Task: inverse folding
């Protein structure tokens, strides 16, 4: 009888020990699963965070809209007929299209590459973002619509060609047949013989309004 009790006790202890080992094994597996799950979760959060930051960075550096072109304000017209933009004119280099609140634009965020403005006469419309960069360098931009007289266009082209830090192009989106623009400045003229043309050139070609005086007007883009 005593031997049978002892045998049963030994078997029971063995089963308990086996159950304990199985329980410990399950706990180890659970801990491993929890740790592994936590690592995966943290890694996912890190990757997700990097993606969000990168996406926001890409959006900030490469895309703009009318509301974030950093060109906000209004015109104030002087007694001489020259309009001055009163407000913010951003100067950040961006990659995607900027929509400007004026046409032609006189400032704001723009393309990293300037439009060549060493007396260049363009016969087709140019990229406003490159043109704005040229204005930042102190250039004067002559623009005209299809309503401008050919004689005036030819005479203005001849003037531009002999004047460094100027350029000329057609712009059928503008309000008047012939307009002159510089950084933060703009005016309409009646024709090539309007005295306001020479006065605008004298005052604003590399004028005091220039954010980057002396910066190059060559070595940029021709489009």
Result:
């Amino acid at each position: 009888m005593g031997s049978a009790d002892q045998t049963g006790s030994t078997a029971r202890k063995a089963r308990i020990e086996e159950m304990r080992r199985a329980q410990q094994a399950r706990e180890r597996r659970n801990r491993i699963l929890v740790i592994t799950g936590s690592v995966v979760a943290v890694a996912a959060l890190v990757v997700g965070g990097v993606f969000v930051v990168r996406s926001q960075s890409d959006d900030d550096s490469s895309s703009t809209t009318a509301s974030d072109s950093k060109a906000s304000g209004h015109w104030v017209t002087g007694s001489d007929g020259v309009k001055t933009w009163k407000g913010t004119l951003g100067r950040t280099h961006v990659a995607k299209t900027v929509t400007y609140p004026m046409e032609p634009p006189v400032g704001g965020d723009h393309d990293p590459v300037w439009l060549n403005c060493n007396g260049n006469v363009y016969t087709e419309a140019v990229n406003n973002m490159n043109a704005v960069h040229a204005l930042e360098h102190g250039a004067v931009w002559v623009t005209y619509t299809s309503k401008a007289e050919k004689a005036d266009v030819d005479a203005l082209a001849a003037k531009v060609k002999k004047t460094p830090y100027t350029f000329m192009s057609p712009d059928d989106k503008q309000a008047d047949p012939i307009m002159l623009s510089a950084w933060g400045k703009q005016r309409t003229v009646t024709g090539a013989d309007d005295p306001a043309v020479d006065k605008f050139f004298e005052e604003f070609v590399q004028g005091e309004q220039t954010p980057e005086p002396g910066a190059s007007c060559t070595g940029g883009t021709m489009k």
